[in-house]
Specification:
30% of the residues lie in helices and 26% in strands. It is an alpha+beta fold. It has two domains: 47 residues, N-terminal domain of TfIIb; 94 residues, K homology (KH) domain (GMP Synthetase, Chain A, domain 3, 2-Layer Sandwich).
């Protein structure tokens, strides 16, 4: 399904990929990348693609929840948060894959309303749409 991009951004990775740098073309972000110990690297300070994905997915999903709430004629409660946990590991079919878990805190929202909000949000969120064919996103809601 084609997408008409309303916004684009550009980043360049250099060095060893997961053990190099990544920089946004507009200069707003320049990060040192470090391979985690769990993947055979030195670990330590630095970012990695999974950390960046978790940052983006949590923010994007929270924003998409606000759009979904508007469609459902409800409101995202004040103090709501989305925590994304992203994992990486070998796939049984070969290569590597990612795992994704979203912990959504919706203070005071009834569980049935929260479940409907999650369903609609997953249909709106670009991150959810990008990975829906290949990643089973585990979503939990708390209130």
């Amino acid at each position: 399904m084609p997408t008409e991009a309303k916004y684009k951004t550009t980043a360049t990775a250099s060095g060893g990929g997961r053990d190099g740098r990544t920089t946004l073309a507009d200069g707003t972000l320049d990060l040192q990348l470090v391979v985690p110990k769990e993947l055979g690297g030195p670990g330590g300070d630095g970012a990695n693609p999974e950390k960046l994905f978790a940052l983006g997915y949590s923010a994007c999903f929270l924003g998409a929840m606000r759009v979904a709430a508007g469609q459902l004629k409800t409101k995202v409660p004040d103090g709501s948060t989305v925590t994304a946990t992203i994992g990486i590991g070998p796939r049984s079919e070969g290569g590597f894959g990612i795992t994704a878990e979203l912990d959504v805190y919706l203070p005071g929202m009834p569980q049935d309303e929260a479940a409907k909000l999650m369903e609609v949000t997953h249909g709106i969120c670009p991150y959810s749409n990008a990975i829906k064919a290949s990643v089973d996103v585990k979503t939990t809601t708390r209130g």
